[in-house]
Amino acid sequence: MSLLIAQFLTGLANAAALFLVASGLSLIFGVTRIVNFAHGSFYMLGAFIGYSLMQVLPGFFGFWSSVLLAGIAVGLIGVIVEMFVLRPIYKAPELFQLVATFGVILVIQDLTLMTWGAVDVLGPRVPGLKGVVRILGEPVPQYDLALIAITPFVLFALWYLITKTRVGILVRAATQDREMVGALGVNQAWLFTGVFFLGAALAGLGGAIQLPKGGADLLMDFNILAAIFVVVVIGGMGSLPGAYLAAVLISVLNVFGVSYIPQSTLVLMFVVMAVVLMVKPFGLLGREEVAGEHGQVGEPERPFKPAGKKGRIIVAALLLLLALLPVFGSSFAMVLVTDIIIFCLFAASLHFILGLGGLVSFGHAAYFGGGAYVAALLVSSAGTPMELAFLLAPLGACLAAVIIGWLCIRLTGVYFAMLTMAFAQLLWSLVYQWDEFTGGDDGLVDIWPSPWLAETEAYYYLTLIVGVGGIILLRHTAHTPFGYALRASRDSSRQAEATGIHTKRVQWAAFAFAGSMAGLAGALFVFSKGSIFPTELEIARSFDALIVVFLGGVKTLSGAVVGGATLELVKDYLTRFEYWRLILGVLIIVIVILAPDGIVGSLRKLGERTGLLREAEVSK
Amino acid sequence: MKLLKLSIPAAAMAVMGVLAGSAMAADTIKIGEINHYKRMAAFANPYKQGIELGLEEINAAGGVLGKPLEFIFRDDQGKPGEAVKIAEELMTREGAVMLTGTILSHVGLAISSYAGKKKHLYLASEPLADALVWEKGNKYTFRLRTSTFMQASMLAEAAAKSPAKKYATIAPNYAYGKDAVAAFKKALLKLRPDVEFVTEQWPALFKIDAGAEVQAIERAKPDAIYNVTFGGDLAKFVREGTTRGLFEGRKVYGLLTGEPEYLDPLKDEAPEGWIVTGYPWYDFKSGPNKIFVDAYMAKFNERPGIGSLVGYMTAQSVAAGISAAGSTETEALVKAFEGLKISTPVGEIMFRKQDHQSTMGAFVGTTALRDGKGVIVNWVYKKGEDYLPSDEEVKMLRSAAK
User: Fold this and answer.
1) pTM for this one?
2) Do domains B27-146+287-360 and B149-284+362-387 have the same CATH topology?
3) Which of B37, B178, B243 sits opposite A132 (nearest CB)?
4) Which of A141, A490, B274, B309 falls between 20 and 30 A from A619, CA-CA?
5) CA closest to A338 among chain B residues
6) What's the number of domains chain A is made of?
7) Which among B88, B113, B178 is the nearest to A332, CB-wise?
């Protein structure tokens, strides 16, 4: 019994930092509708800045003032990010801003490395709170008790700020209806900046306050990211008490998980999230989301149309060039282009559900990696010939997408995104942990193509035909009745239903189709690399595709392909430099600001303005 | 907006440049070195500096085969797929004669599979996975660093001498952690069949919930603990464990815990009395170890880590291998590496013919505090060849591979 209580207290103490960081994310999302990927970076900055301050400010008060100052410093960094990176792109399509925050992650990673060096630092202990208190005979660190006491206080202060003050009223009003608040004469820009300050400061506070229980390192930004998203979603986006409840729930369950099912550490929180979302689709204390329906920000988008004559000629010329690559290019050029085509197919499959279907998936790597694993497992465990495994891979991925899609499709917006991420994470941990079958972290190696495809050139042509074929098929589908139905379901599900379209079923089918095309890309990938590892199922992989879809232009048909090819080429070139992440991050931010409609979307507009392209043709 | 227009032809030119490739005149012998320079900067940088020191000495002595030796360092972002692409580029476009590098085992395995397929030589310098030379070993892959199995066996040998009967293990939840626990269990049970493992803890890598782990281990009441956590996880585990009195009256055996990369961040909170593998660079009085440490500190003005040593030995191995082969042809290199003997700071090592594992050993000692910093004392250097399985066993393990 005494141990149970001690474990419960450990869970409560762990919830402190998690709650602080998650509440910041929740606030920012609630008001600005920005999914801030850089929130983990703010947390990391808080830890490093707090650490440096604690070296200078001694003693008990030194520690606590360092924590506060770290929070304020990170808040100010948040303000800089908001004013210079995000403010120019509020008018961009929904969720576009996450690309910019992704750029911010890269920049902060390298700046942190430059400032604090590569070596992990261990946080100092708090003078006066170093010991333990015996509770029913079990040792409980004093600092844990301090954390347990502080968190509800912070929650109360935030709650008071939001519900009882004028600022809070404005923030809540902005959460409900931004336009209206603006129309009533409130300076929206500063309101957003203020919220960003508060959100970032909370993350910084979280980073600094966890120092005595750990330290600061360069991987902590990504390491906490998934956890805080989970907390925010379980609690309900925008709900502070929800975030607290969820942080406690996750932390306490985790402590017991560690004790009684030690192998569960990877998946537990995602299982909890999946269960909660299936029972309560908007989180424990969340309300139904309205964004993404009618009245989204930005100009109304123009319908997709098949490529014109000029476009077709350009594409045909480009394909001819690629087909002749083995004649004039080096063997590495073929490998590089193979990689790019595979990635473009993967990105295009995500674009199909995201751009056409309006379904934002944060877990698309599940089907890419899933397809790759299906092929690899068939070859390594069942001795299946490569050709058959190659054909079965998309089917396997399709099956996964059918199942996961069925479970996710009734959610919308960010909740849908999060649930797809949870399932992708479940698949990842399954592969990661079931090492007798999947090889776990050591992956599956020696998965090479059949002899007739073994040469770089032969495999290049296979990729070119299958990959480009897949992209064209995806594109063509957009113009079939199915594609029109999908777009109708995205734009107005009510009207679509009224015309007899079963919107959920259409979306489900689209999800499965996109999944199988991602699986096809995965099959191409595994045989080109000869090995497969759980990294291809990771969240980071899903984000790669997400980033390029937005970067290329989510509201254009060729966006994913152009974005994918551009980013892969740029990355291939930049990784030769020492601080490539900084350069890439800045580059992404610059592109995002210069081209808020994505590369393709903005180039098209530019072309129309300069007269190179004709203004959106009325009819053929 | 003009900028955008201008950048299109520029980008196109860059693309053409990449696609067309460029053949460079080879007046140096190039080695393709792939590592996670960003993702694991704290470990990769000392390693890179070790290589640079080695190169400087090799080239000052006239290089190899009359040409200067050159390493091309490339970052793979910690992604296996990326590493394979870079490997292809290094071998086919940059004119590298062989590949080296990686710390993460899975990236090492990916390059190894690629090397086996394309018949390029790959010297896996730092990845620890046993599979690399055994179950998934191939003709073209050699491994330098003391493997998980070897280091775990050294600790098991030390553990067998203590009266402790009930063991708890804690290891990160991925392949390396699982290998390390399995190897330790196997070796210890062989020496002491009466030992019992009362709990196994598997925190997620770099996401340890240290308080909970400490409570879970305490609950099992073990006599001794075997620790495989490292980096930030180790720091958190040590702090919570010390605060809650987990280590009082218990023997702790720590894999890699004594390596400066992991021990230094703990500062004056470094645990005392743990038996660990590590690298006592501060204690060498004379001999080749001392010479290496002095040269390293003179050049970089910072302490060497275990990575520095491995990097230095990588450069040495490459130079020795190419010299012995008398050519840069892969088949000749493979032949030269099999049974190749090199005198290194830690003594003479050999790349074994039967499994391509080097006989580099490890330092085993007891942690202590000195001047407010963690060190290892009473250490001995254990030779790698004494902790490798018998030839028959190796043959069996490797027969699973091709």
Assistant:
1) 0.89
2) yes
3) B243
4) A490
5) B85
6) 2
7) B88
Contact A529 B116 (CB under 8 A): no
Tell whether A441 lies on the interface with B, counting CB pairs under 8 A.
yes
- Integer Cα distance of A210 and A14 in angstroms: 9
Q: Which residue of B has its CA nearest to A446?
A: B113
Residue type, A169: I
Q: Are B308 and B50 in contact (CB under 8 A)?
A: yes
**What are the boundaries of each domain within chain B?**
27-146+287-360, 149-284+362-387
In sequence order, what are the residues at sequence separation of 6 or more whose Cβ sits closer than 8 angstroms to the Cβ of residue A336?
A: A572, B18, B19, B85, B89
Q: Which residues make Cβ contacts (< 8 Å) with residue A102, sequence separation at least 6?
A: A37, A38, A543, A547, A588
The answer as to whether A581 is a domain residue is no
Using CB atoms, pick whichever of A214, A333, A529 lies closest to residue B19.
Answer: A333
Rounding to the nearest 10 degrees, give the CA dihedral for residues A165, A169, A171, A177.
Answer: 180
Q: Same domain for A88 and A226?
A: yes
* B4 → closest Cβ in A6, A578, A606: A606
And the tokens for A307?
């490529």
- Asked if residue A549 is part of any domain, the answer here is no
What letter represents residue B89's amino acid?
A: E
Residue to substitute from A434, A531, A538, A581, interface B, most B β-carbons within 10 A = A531
- Give contacts of A 160-199 with B, CB under 8 A: none
DSSP lists the bridge partners of residue B224 as B167, B251
Q: Which of A213, A245, A279 is the last residue of a domain?
A: A279
Fold of B27-146+287-360: Rossmann fold (3.40.50)
- Contact state of A11 with B264 under an 8 Å Cβ cutoff: no
Rounded (5°) CA angle A48-A51-A52 = 90
Residue A296 lies in a domain: no
The number of residues in chain B equals: 402
| Structure confidence by residue, pLDDT tens digits, A390-403 | 999 999 999 999 99
Question: In Å, how far is B148's CA from the nearest CA of chain A?
Answer: 14
In a domain, A454, yes or no: yes
- Please indicate whether, in this complex, the C-beta atoms of B243 and A141 are within 8 angstroms of each other: yes
**What length is written for chain A?**
620
Q: Do B239 and A122 touch (CB under 8 A)?
A: yes
pLDDT digit string (tens) for B232-287?
Answer: 899 999 999 999 999 999 999 999 999 999 999 898 899 999 999 999 999 999 99
How far does the CA of residue A142 sit from the closest CA of chain B (Å)?
10
Interface contact A132-B244, CB threshold 8 A: yes
- Mutation pick from A381, A533, A605 vs chain B, by most beta carbons of B within 10 Å, is A533
Q: Where are the beta strands (DSSP E) in B203-284?
A: 224-227, 251-258, 275-278
Q: For A75-171, list the strands marked E by DSSP.
A: 121-122, 132-135, 138-141
- With CB atoms and an 8 Å threshold, state whether A535 touches B81: yes
Disruptive mutation site among B239, B264, B303 for chain A (greatest number of A CBs within 10 Å): B239
Are the beta carbons of B207 and A265 separated by less than 8 Å? yes
Average pLDDT across each block of 10 residues of chain A; the chain has 620 residues. List them in order: 88 94 91 88 97 92 96 97 91 82 94 90 88 86 94 92 89 79 85 93 96 89 89 88 94 89 80 88 78 47 76 90 89 92 96 91 95 95 92 96 92 86 89 84 88 92 96 93 92 89 94 97 95 90 92 87 93 88 94 88 85 54
Where in the sequence is the domain holding A174, given as residue range(s)?
2-259+267-279
DSSP B54-123: HHHHHHHTT-BTTB-EEEEEEE-TT-HHHHHHHHHHHHHTS-EEEEEE-SSHHHHHHHHHHHHHHT--EE
* Topology of the domain comprising B149-284+362-387: Rossmann fold (3.40.50)
Asked if residues A371 and A401 have their Cβ atoms less than 8 Å apart, the reply is no
Alpha helices in B246-389 (DSSP H): 260-263, 287-300, 306-325, 330-337
Do A272 and A361 belong together in one domain?
A: no
